[in-house]
C-alpha cells in the first residue's frame, strides 16, 4: 500500500510527540503542517512560534500558521496539498464542516481522555482534579460537535495518587502516537470501524480559569492535593500568606481523618516538609514558591520563615 498523505494540525508539546511519531513511520507522508500563529511569550513578550511550528521547521516541513484555518484562502491552500487524512492534536481552533469534508478519510483527533469522559479543553487536569484512577487517550473521527466523534481506539493508563498533570501529559503523548501508528492505519486500510460514544457517560472538562488557582484550607486534603497536582500545568495553585501569594507545588496526603485542628494550622514540621490541617484531613507540603521568588523546597522556605507548630499558614 502506498504511503498515506497526511496534513497535521497541532500546537503544543503534546502534539509535537504525535507529529514526530507520524514522521518517523514509513506508512505516512506529512504533506503539510498547520499550527497556531506566533504568540508573545516570556518576560519580554517576544513573538514565539508554537512548539509544533518550531519542530516542523526544523524538519523542513511545509508549515502555515493562520489566525483561522477556516478562511477560504487557507482552505484552498490546504486542499492543494492533496492530503488523504487530517490528524488534529491539540490544535486550538474549531475547524469548519467544510474543512472536515476536505479529506478522503476525514479528520481524526487524538484526545487526552477516555472518551466520552472529559470532552473539552482540559481533560488531563480535570481527570486528576476529580481523582480519576484511570485515564488515557482516544483516537476519534472528528465531527462538528466538540469531541463527539466515533472512537477508533483507546489507550488506558493508571493515575497514581501523586502523579501530576505534567507527568500524565508526557505519558499520554506517547500513547497517542501509538494510536496513530496502529488504529489510524487499520482504519485507512478498511480493517477498523469506528464505535459510537456512549452518551450516558459524557462528562466535560471545562477550561481552567485563573480564579480556580486559590485554594482554601477549609476544603478536604484529598480535594486540595488533587487540585494542586492537576494545576501544575497552569495556572498553578496558591494560598494567601502574610499578605502575599504562596504557591504550593508539591504535596502528599498526610491524613484523611478529621481532627480538632483549625484549617490552615501547621500540625507538624519536618526537616523537609510541613503538614497543614484542612477541612478534612491534613496535607504534607514539600515545595512552595513565595511571591516574586523562585520555586524552593520547604526546607529552604523554613530557613527564612520562623514558623512553628500551631501557627496558621495564612
- Give the assembly state of these chains: single chain
CATH architecture of the largest domain: 3-Layer(aba) Sandwich
CA radius of gyration: 23 Å
Major pleated sheet: 7 strands, mixed
The tally of structural domains comes to 2
Strand content: 25-35%
- Helix-strand pattern: EHEEEHEHEHEEHEEHEHEEEEEEH
Give the neighbour order of strands across the main sheet: 5-2-1-6-7-9-10
Question: Helix count, per DSSP?
Answer: 8
Give the termini separation.
65 Å
Helix content: 25-40%
CATH superfamily placement of the largest domain: Formyl transferase, N-terminal domain
- Ranges where pLDDT stays below 50 over 5 or more residues in a row are none
User: How many beta-strand runs?
Assistant: 17
Estimate the global geometry from the Cα principal axes: elongated
Level-1 CATH class name of the largest domain: Alpha Beta
Average of the residue pLDDT scores: 96
Q: What structural category do the secondary elements indicate?
A: alpha/beta
Amino acid at each position: 500500500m502506498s504511503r498515506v498523505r497526511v496534513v497535521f494540525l497541532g500546537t503544543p508539546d503534546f502534539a509535537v510527540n504525535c507529529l514526530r511519531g507520524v514522521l518517523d513511520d514509513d506508512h505516512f507522508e506529512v504533506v503539510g503542517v498547520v499550527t497556531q500563529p506566533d504568540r508573545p511569550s516570556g518576560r519580554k513578550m517576544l513573538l514565539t512560534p508554537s512548539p509544533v511550528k518550531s519542530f516542523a521547521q526544523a524538519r523542513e516541513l511545509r508549515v502555515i500558521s493562520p489566525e483561522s484555518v477556516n478562511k477560504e484562502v487557507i482552505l484552498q491552500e490546504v486542499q492543494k496539498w492533496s492530503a488523504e487524512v487530517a490528524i488534529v492534536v491539540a490544535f486550538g481552533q474549531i475547524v469548519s464542516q467544510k474543512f472536515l469534508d476536505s479529506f478522503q478519510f476525514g479528520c481524526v483527533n487524538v484526545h487526552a481522555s477516555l472518551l466520552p469522559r472529559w470532552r473539552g479543553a482540559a481533560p488531563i487536569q480535570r481527570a486528576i482534579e476529580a481523582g480519576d484512577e484511570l485515564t488515557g487517550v482516544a483516537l476519534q473521527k472528528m465531527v462538528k460537535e466538540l469531541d463527539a466523534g466515533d472512537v477508533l481506539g483507546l489507550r488506558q493508563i493508571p493515575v497514581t495518587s501523586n502523579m501530576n498533570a505534567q507527568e500524565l501529559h508526557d505519558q499520554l503523548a506517547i500513547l497517542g502516537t501509538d494510536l496513530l501508528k496502529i488504529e489510524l492505519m487499520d482504519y485507512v486500510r478498511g480493517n477498523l470501524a469506528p464505535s459510537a460514544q456512549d452518551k450516558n457517560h459524557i462528562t466535560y472538562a471545562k477550561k481552567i480559569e485563573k480564579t480556580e488557582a486559590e485554594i482554601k484550607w477549609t476544603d478536604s486534603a484529598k480535594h486540595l492535593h488533587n487540585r494542586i497536582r492537576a494545576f501544575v500545568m497552569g495556572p498553578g495553585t496558591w494560598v494567601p500568606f502574610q499578605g502575599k501569594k504562596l504557591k504550593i507545588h508539591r504535596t502528599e496526603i498526610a491524613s484523611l481523618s478529621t481532627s480538632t485542628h483549625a484549617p490552615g494550622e501547621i500540625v507538624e514540621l519536618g526537616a523537609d516538609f510541613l503538614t497543614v490541617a484542612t477541612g478534612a484531613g491534613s496535607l504534607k507540603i514539600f515545595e512552595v514558591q513565595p511571591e516574586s521568588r523562585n520555586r524552593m523546597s520547604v526546607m529552604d522556605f523554613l530557613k527564612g520563615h520562623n514558623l512553628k507548630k500551631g501557627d496558621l499558614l495564612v
